[in-house]
Model the fold of this input.
Amino acid sequence: MTQLQTQTAEIVKIGLQAPSFNLPSTLNMETLEENVTLESYRGKWLMLFFWPYDFTYVCPTEIIAFSDHAASFRDLDCEIVGVSVDSVYTHRAWTQTPRDQQGIGSIDYPLASDFKKETARAYGVLDEASGAAHRGLFIIDPEGIVRYQVVTDMNVGRSVEETLRILQALQAGGLCPVNWKPGEKTLG
Done:
């Protein structure tokens, strides 16, 4: 691991303020001129996740699955923002391409462009060698504090159900034992 990779991996820490971001997004699909910022999600939970590249194989499975469950996240007062190093123009093209033609179709949350790779670097998920983001997922509380993070290999997709369970455990406010599920007692 290079010194730069070591430094960036230590920037995001559980219990500390999440790195700020201001990224072009697909919030306004027509103009692509509406950015997403960490500050615009204050007062809500935020699930921020990164993927390597658009028009690939594992990425659409996650993006579509999170979109299919976006209402479940919103029911928990949590918004979703997806980020890759591709441009917003590529994001728009991907959403306008039918799923049976390697597209993702309409998505129920904004896709943000980290074209300059500053946000992926700040969150410690940028693979400096390839220029792509690893699959990083961060749950940020309403005050902007990082409460959960997981980074996986580029070849391994994340679980929507586990992400929802973790969000609910964080919101439960107690000590949640292994395999805790909503409605079960906490340890304290």
Observations:
- Confidence is low (pLDDT under 50) at residues 1-9.
- Residues 160-172 form the longest helix (13 residues).
